[in-house]
Amino acid sequence: MMQVLPIMTALDADGNGEIxxxxxxxxxxxxxxLDKNKDNKLxxxxxxxxxxxxxxxxxxxxxxxxxxxxxxxxxxxxPPVAKQIAxxxxxxxxxxxxxxxxxxxxxxxxxxxxxxxxxxxADRDGRHSKKEYIENGAYLTPQSRRGIxxxxxxxNDGFVSEAEYVENRLITDEAKLIFGGMDSDGNNRLTSKxxxxxxxxxxxxxxxxxxxxxxxxxxxxxxxxxxxxxxxxWARH
Length: 237
Ligand SMILES: [Ca+2]
Ligand SMILES: [Ca+2]
Ligand SMILES: [Ca+2]
Ligand SMILES: [Ca+2]
What we know:
Layout lengths: L5 H6 L9 H5 L1 H8 L9 H4 L36 E2 L2 E2 H7 L10 H14 L6 E2 L1 H6 L6 H11 L7 E2 H21 L7 E2 H6 L6 H11 L6 E2 L1 H13 L1
Helix pairs in contact: 6-9, 9-12
The structure holds calcium ion (4 copies).
């Protein structure tokens, strides 16, 4: 496994191996999260792999043990996603979070997504095959690439077209920024407390219902790949 630097992990919120425009825009908050001892400086210690991870601690093999959960979390089939929570439609819920979903993005961002799409479309037929994206891809792990691929392939034809790729990037890059904004302790995990404290959802019943819907493995916290799976469905309704 390749060694991933904490700075990369922090900036690359979706762990797809590249820093997107949206992630660059969120980089100040991401960098601040690396400042573990809150002295407003980033030392070499804090930038070194394995500094103060949640699990396992520092030192050792040099292989980061704080890799995104997408790496280890098996992708179980997602149960049907509720279309209404506490009387709110998924569209209304995303609006409360300030999300524009697939309708967002500046011309520059769209152009950048198309450019990145082209890098992986090796045979230049305008779509990513599973071979191009999952097998030959260079992102974190084949498993996380598989998850991203399946989520992107909206029409389930086994290929990700440029439009599907761009749509997925618009939805997920924004969703990750929103996640980061709510993750107030910066541990890349979101509790229902943090969600409530974000103030996006004023209605407590709604906030609890939304958290429950997102927490598909029912462990009381959300990690980004888990959160994105349900969020991505909502954004495509
Ligand atoms: Ca292709
Ligand atoms: Ca497709
Ligand atoms: Ca947190
Ligand atoms: Ca969870």
